[in-house]
Amino acid sequence: MTVTGERNTPQIGLLALQGAYYAHxxxxxxxxxxxxxxxxxxxxxxxxxLVVPGGESTTMLKLLEPEGFRxxxxxxxxxxxxxxxxxxxxxxxxxEVTGPAQASLNMIDITVERxxxxxxxxxxxxxxxxxxxxxxxxxxxxxxxxxxxxxGAGVEVLGEYKGHPVLARWRNILLATFHPELSGSDAxxxxxxxxxxxx
Length: 199
Known about the structure:
By secondary structure, the chain is of the alpha/beta class. It has helices at residues 21-30, 57-63, 69-78, 88-93, 187-197; strands spanning 11-15, 34-38, 49-52, 83-86, 94-98, 108-113, 124-130, 135-142, 147-151, 156-161, 164-170, 173-176. Helix 1 links the parallel strand 1 and strand 2.
């Protein structure tokens, strides 16, 4: 476990510029995990892991521009800080974004297609297994969800829906194309904390 300063328990930061970060915070608090909302670059120095929620990836990119915020996120993650991105958070981490193309943080070698299932009205829920987490039937919530269309070397698929990776991991980066914080299950967040933050 990586800890900052004198703490002996991990502090999980939730990027709170835009999107559904409060739902992640509620779920993490139910796991007795200490959390803080991250709105300024300097606050990244006080956390041991970062959760980036769903929302509007283009808006998040713009809000990450001031004061080297974007560069500091990338630096911390490349130095080993665990990163958990859901929906827009997954888009931000990808090396390549399509549908349409846009800039990203370029932290994991995957290609992601934005809004791949359609518009907001086409959002849906679906059950699928996540064998790597020992979950036989996860209730996934897909809201204007992206699809991972290409996986680079070393990217591990933890869960699939209709042949597409929906939960993937590479080193200290975990990405979900759905919204596990809305599923009614803590399985994905528990995996992130137990296997990637506290291990």
